[in-house]
Write a structure and sequence with these properties.
12 strands, alpha/beta, 7-stranded mixed beta sheet, single chain, 337 residues, binds heme C, Purple Acid Phosphatase, chain A, domain 2
Length: 337
């Protein structure tokens, strides 16, 4: 419906499986589905890279995904080594090489540092945006993943080999009405997706890390005996109801939403919440999200405990993108006990 020419599936799309993704071509015959390290070119319908000629310049486009996504999401598709796949693709003659990297921010940067000859890397998985593009190892890094709220725009100057304009265009919410056909498709796919995640959770077995790993988080019910007033005060905040907000939107299993509506998520480099089935005690923004894992504290409360709480404690969730009005000094007063 949008008329996209090149489609670079990430974890969210790959969970639909190979058949579903390639069937999209039936709707958009002129589109190319790119993934540079997905079992190689033998997967029908997928291509490793594409050359687009613009004003006599050969622009090479590819997309590389993190093998970790393999475990998380992908149905019967195999992810190969990112570095060697990218090196091989870059051997194709070109004037400009662009890769969409479906990696965490830190891993994408590591890959860019190790690879020679990439001109533009679009960070395709991380939330948030970059105000300026950033140059690492001769490659311009660009990030504009803002849940569809912005579109990244870049002009490339072949004489200097650098961008002449790089900006983010804000999509004005008021400038268009939701198309009922698209709204219906979105609702339908969200229900489908929820069922899919529920199925993944059901099929987890004892061998799964998620279920066997022991986490140092104990949950807020373990605090109420010694800190009863504070627990009551916390229960009145939105933090104690953050998971219910996802349930209301049918998004309570969605990996895109969970990290900021649970306690100690892996996506925030913490060792708490792992999945709705594995850690059902860690829904909502509980005490340990701000104060840190309390396993040792509840055993011996006299030992030093408690992280220093500052603006960065909150800004992992209250980001400029999703809560632009957030101001630490004022907002902390609303949640303090
Ligand atoms: C067995 C009783 C007990 C339990 C259970 C308990 N605490 Fe405490 N907590 C204490 C005591 C006592 C202190 C004061 C320690 C001190 O000042 O020496 C304390 C202090 C704290 C502090 C302040 C630390 C500081 O240095 O200012 C925080 C934060 C805290 N607890 C959070 C929690 C959280 C979160 C939980 C639940 C995961 C919890 N506590 C469970 C007894 C407990
Ligand atoms: C793990 C993510 C996360 C962290 C960390 C976090 N918040 Fe929140 N916060 C949320 C979510 C999600 C909501 C919305 C909850 C709802 O209503 O569903 C919220 C709501 C709030 C609200 C709305 C008031 C209310 O009671 O409804 C305030 C104020 C707030 N947070 C302040 C803070 C402050 C201050 C910090 C840091 C000390 C912080 N938050 C840390 C996720 C987080
Ligand atoms: C980067 C962290 C983050 C992610 C990811 C996130 N949220 Fe939130 N969410 C927040 C914060 C912070 C708030 C509270 C501030 C606000 O209301 O703007 C919030 C508030 C909400 C609320 C409003 C609660 C209310 O009724 O006032 C809903 C609903 C919600 N989120 C749903 C979602 C859904 C659905 C997703 C996934 C598509 C999602 N969130 C992903 C951080 C996040
Ligand atoms: C959104 C973040 C957040 C959450 C969630 C949270 N706290 Fe706190 N807590 C704070 C802040 C901020 C302070 C102020 C002291 C500081 O800056 O360390 C504080 C202080 C405390 C103190 C020390 C109070 C004192 O008077 O010295 C205790 C104990 C405590 N919290 C326990 C809890 C418990 C128990 C829960 C869960 C029921 C909880 N907190 C949930 C942010 C949080």
């Amino acid at each position: 419906m949008i008329g996209t020419e090149i489609f670079t599936p990430g974890a969210q799309e790959l969970i639909y499986g190979h058949e579903m993704i390639t069937s999209l071509k039936g709707h958009a015959p002129n589109s190319t589905i790119l993934c540079g390290n997905l079992g190689g070119p033998e997967i029908p319908g997928f291509e490793t890279h594409k050359i687009v000629t613009i004003n006599d310049k050969k622009v090479l486009i590819t997309a590389i995904i993190d093998p970790i996504l393999d475990k998380k999401a992908i149905h019967g598709l195999q992810v190969t080594d990112p570095l060697s796949a990218l090196e091989k693709i870059l051997e194709t003659p070109h004037d400009l090489a662009i890769a969409v990297l479906h990696f965490s921010d830190a891993k994408a940067r590591r890959l860019v540092r190790r690879i020679a000859g990439l001109d533009i890397a679009i960070l395709g998985t991380q939330r948030g945006t970059m105000k300026e593009s950033e140059l690492i190892n001769g490659c311009w890094l660009i990030k504009n993943n803002n849940h569809g709220k912005t579109i990244g725009y870049l002009d490339w100057d072949f004489t200097t080999g650098s961008p002449s304009t790089a900006k983010l265009i804000q999509i004005n919410k008021l400038a268009y009405d939701a198309d009922p056909k698209i709204t219906e498709l979105v609702d339908e796919s969200e229900e489908w997706l929820r069922q899919h995640y529920v199925e993944i959770e059901k099929n987890k077995n004892e061998a799964d890390d998620d279920l066997t790993v022991k986490v140092p988080y104990v949950g807020s019910h373990a605090c109420s005996t010694c800190h009863p007033q504070i627990t009551t005060s916390w229960q009145k905040t939105g933090h104690a109801r953050a998971y219910a907000s996802l349930q209301k939107k049918c998004k309570d299993f969605c990996p895109d939403c969970l990290p900021c509506h649970v306690t100690g998520s892996r996506e925030h480099d913490k060792q708490g919440f792992r999945s709705p089935t594995a850690t059902p005690d860690l829904f909502n923004i509980q005490c340990e999200e701000c104060h840190g894992p309390a396993e040792d504290h509840i055993k011996d409360p006299k030992l030093p405990y408690g992280l220093k709480i500052e603006a960065s404690t909150c800004s992992i969730c209250h980001t400029a993108n999703n809560d632009p009005e957030f101001f630490f000094e004022d907002d902390v007063k609303l949640i303090i006990h």
